[in-house]
Amino acid sequence: MNIIIVGCGKVGRSLVEQLSSENHDISIVDPKAYVVQSMVDMYDVFGIVGNGASYNVLTEVGVEEADLLIAVTNSDELNLLCCLIAKKAGKCATIARVSNPVYFDEINFIKEEMGISMIINPELAAASEMSRILRIPTAMEINSFAKGKVELLKFVLRKSSILNGMKMKEIGERMRGEVLVCAVERQKDVFIPSGDFVLQENDRISIVASPRSASKFFQKIGVQMNPVRNVMIVGGSKTAYYLSKKLLRIGISVKIIDKDFDRCEELSVLLPKAVIIHGNGSDQEVLLEEGLLETDAFVALTNFDEENVFLSLFVKGQTPAKLITKVKRVSYNHIIDGLDLGSLIYPEYITAQYIVQYVRAKQNSIGSNIENLYKIVDGKAEALEFHIEEHAPVIGIPLQILPLRDQILICSINRNGTVKIPTGQDMIQVGDTVIVVTTKTGLHDISDILKKE
Amino acid sequence: MNYAVIRYILGLVILFEGAFLSLPCIVAMIYREARGIPFFAVMLLCFFVGFLLSHKKPKNMQYYAKEGFAAVALSWILLSFFGCLPFVFNGDIPSFTNAMFEMISGFTTTGASILSDVEVLAKCSLFWRSFSHWIGGMGVLVFILAILPMGGGQNLHLMKAESPGPSVGKLVPKVRQTAKILYGIYCFMTLIEIVLLMFGGLPLFDSMLLSFGSAGTGGFSILNSGLADYSPYIQYTVTVFMILFGVNFNVYYFILIRKFKDAWKFEELKYYLFVIAAAVICITYNIRDLFPTLESSFRHAFFQVGSIITTTGYSSVDFNVWPEFSKVILVMLMFIGACAGSTGGGIKVSRVILMLKTVKKEMYFYIHPRSIRKIKFNQHVVEHEVIRSINIFLITYMMILAFSTLLIALDGFDLITDFTAVVATLNNIGPGLELVGPTSNFGMFSDFSKVVLMFDMLAGRLELFPMLVLISPITWRDTKVFKKIPKYRKDSPGV
C-alpha cells in the first residue's frame, strides 16, 4: 500500500520500521531536516521536510495516490488537521493520534464527523494493556482475539508448577480441552508444540483460552492467582490517569505518587476515589512510608526510562508485588528484557502495533480471507484469524487427521459467536472463524496451512 | 567494515558484467569475427568469479555509508579491469595499461582514447567500447538495484555514491522502483535516438553506437574523424540528444507523470539552457569567418557546446584551431558540466548556481553585516550542510586538478595540454586542447600519467569522494572495532 506517515517521533519511527519491512511504499513528513535525513538513510522510504498539515507539502508527498495517511506528531490538533486536509486533497483513509484526555469523551464524535478511519491514543492503549495485565497478574502478556472472546496469555513456568515435564497430550486430557498451549519459548527458540512436546521449567508458555477458563486453568495447575486489590503508581502522567480510571472501575484501589504539586491537584479533581500523594516517587523512604510492602502491584510510570527501570529494580528487591515498567525507548529492549522486570510496557510500540494491525487487516482484505493478523511472542510467531469460505479444503475433516504443515496449530474455532478450543475430533465448518498460530510467515489462505502434496 | 557485504556486492557486479559481455559476443557472431572469442572467454571468467564471490549471501546484510562508498569505488575498478581483458587478449589494444585506460574512459563516460585509429578495431570491440558508455552513464549498481530485490533502506548508500549531483532524491519511496524508472526513461530515450539516427540513413550498428555514446554522455566515436563526416541532420540529432541526456532525469519523471508545472520549476534546467544558448551565440559570432555559411558555423558551435557542456566529447570539427575566445568558452563549459541527476559529469550546473548564490549572499552580508539571508533553490531553502558540502567538493576538486596537472607535467608537454588533459578526464569529457585536442589522443602519455588520469576519470564520475574514501586509511582502520560489536538485534520488544 501507499502510506504517508506524518511525524517521525518514536511512534513514527516504530511504524516505519515495521511497515517498510512489510513491503509498503512509505513516505514520511517531518519539519526537522535531520530527522527526515536519518530516516531516509536507514529505511527505504521517501522523505519530505515540512509541515504535514500544509496542502502543498501533502501534494508534494503524493497524497492523491496515497491509500492511507497516518498522523502521529506530538500535537493532537495538528494530527487532526492533517487528516482533514488529506481527506479533502486525496481519497485516502486516515489514522490520527489523539491523546489529550479532554477529547476522550468526544472521540467518537470527532471520528465520525471528520471521517477519520481510526483514532489511536498511545497513553490509553498502554493503560488498557496494563489493566489487562493487572487483572491476571500471573500472565506476562495478554492479547485478545475474536473481539475479546479468546485470550492469548503468556506466563513463565516456575519450578513449582505441575506442568513441568508434562507432555502436551496429557495436558489436553487433564484440562478437558478448555485451554491449549499454542507456543512455547525456550531461551531464544519458539516452538509450536505437537502432542509429544514436553514442557520444562522456565519455558515461557502462551496459552489460548476464553477469559473465564483461563483463571480456572491457573487454579488447576496450582498457580496462585494473586488477585490485585491495590496498586501503587509512580508518576501522574496521562497514562496514569487512564490506568487509574480503568482500575477504579473494577474495584482496585489506586495510589498515585507525583512530585508536581499542581498535577497532584489536577489528578485529585479528576480521580476523586484515588489516593494522590505529593512526593518524590524516586525517594525510597517515601515509597516505604506509603506502604510499598503491602501493595499488590507496582507501576513505574515516570517520564524517564532510567528512573522507571531503577524504581522497578528497587521494588523487586523489596516485595514480590507484580511489577509493570513503562519504557519509551524501544531500541534498548533486549537489555531491559534481561533484567527480569516483570511486564514491560512500550507505549510507542503498542501504538505502532495497533496501527500495523489496522494496515495488515486493510491489506489482507484484498485477495485473501485473513480477518486479522497479530504478531505474538515478540514477533517471532503470528496468530491469524481466517474466515472459512465454501469449498475450503479443510471443511469436514477431523483435526487429528488434517495434514497440517509443521509449526502450525489451530487454536480456536469461533462458530456462531461461541468459541471452542478444538480437540482432535472437532471439524471446521463453513462460516467458522479459525485462529491459527504459526511461526511461518506469508500465509494468505486457509489452504496454506495444509501440507503440499 | 563489513567485508562480506562488499564481497557480495562486487560478486553481483561481476556477474552482471558477464551478462553484459554476452552482447559483444552476439555482435561477433553476427559479423563472424574471430576476435570475438576472447569476449566469450572473459564472459565465462566473469560468471565464474562472480559466482564464487556472490553465491554465499552474507548473514549480516547491514551496511552503512562507508561500505557503500568502498563497494561502489571498488566495483568500478573491477568492472574496468574485467572489461579491458578482451581488448588485451584479442590484440586490439595489446598493452594492459592502454586497455585499462580505454575501459575506464568507457565506463566513466569520458571518451578519452589512446587509439589513433579506431576504424581497424573489430566490430565487437567497438560495440563493447560504446556499450560501456551506456552502462556507465546511469551506473551499473543502479542497474543491479533496479533488477535485484536487495531489501533494506541502505541501498540508498549505493545509489548516492554512484549518482551524479550534490544531493540524491528519490522519485518514489522505494530505491528499486526509483532505479527502474530511471533506467526505463534512459532506455526509452536511447531507443528514440537510435530510430531517429536510422532515419538519417545510418546503419543500425552505427546508430546504436552513436546513441550509446551520447546517452551515457561518453564520446567514443566509431570513425577516426569523429562526427565530422556525418550529415547535418545526424549532427543536429546527436546534439539535441546530448543536451537532453544532460538534463536532470527528475524533469523527465515529472513530465512522465504529467506534472508539467513541477518539471518547469527546476531552476537548474533554466540556467542550463541559458548557458547553452549564450555560449552558442558567442561562439557562432566568433567563428563566423571560418565556415562558408552562417548555418554551418551555427551548427558546429551548437554541436561543440552541446558536446562539451554535457561532457560527451564528440566533435564535428577540430575546435583546437578555433579562436582563443571560443576555446576559453569551451574550457569554461568543461568545468560547469551537465545537470545533477543526469548522465553527464563536471561540477554540475546546480553546484555552480548555488556557489554563485553564496557569493551574492556574501556580498550582501558585506553591505548589511547584520542581515540574515537564506539561499533558496527550486523554491526550497537550502540547508547549510548542503552549501558546506559543495564548498568542500569544490576545494577537493581544485586540489585534485592542481595535483594531477603537476604529476602530468613530468612528461614535459606544454601547459595547455597538461591542464586540459586533466580537465577533460576529471570532468569525463574526453578531448582537451592542443596535443589532446579532438583530432589527437592520449596515447603519447607515459604509463604513470595514464594511471593518474585513470584515477581522475573515476574520481570525476563518482563525484570525488568514493575514490578518496577508498584510498583513505581511515576507512579501513577501525575494522577490528567493528567486529567486536555484537550483531544488533532487530527483534521487536515483548509487550
Automatic annotation (TrEMBL), chain A:
It comes from the Bacteria. PROSITE patterns: RCK_C (PS51202), RCK_N (PS51201). The keyword Ion transport applies. The keyword Chaperone does not apply. Residues 140-224, 371-452 form the RCK C-terminal domain. Keywords: Ion transport, NAD, Potassium, Potassium transport, Transport. Residues 1-120, 228-351 form the RCK N-terminal domain. It holds the Pfam family TrkA_C. NCBIfam families: PRK09496.1-5, PRK09496.3-2. This is Trk system potassium uptake protein TrkA. The lineage of its organism: Bacteria, Bacillati, Bacillota, Clostridia, Lachnospirales. The gene is trkA.
UniProtKB/TrEMBL annotation, chain B:
It is found in: Cell inner membrane. This is TrkH family potassium uptake protein. InterPro entries: Cat_transpt, TrkH. It is a multi-pass membrane protein. Keywords: Cell inner membrane, Cell membrane, Ion transport, Membrane, Potassium, Potassium transport, Transmembrane, Transmembrane helix, Transport. It comes from Anaerostipes hominis (ex Liu et al. 2021). Pfam families: TrkH (PF02386). The chain crosses the membrane at residues 9-31, 37-55, 67-89, 131-150, 181-205, 233-257, 269-287, 328-347, 390-410, 451-476.
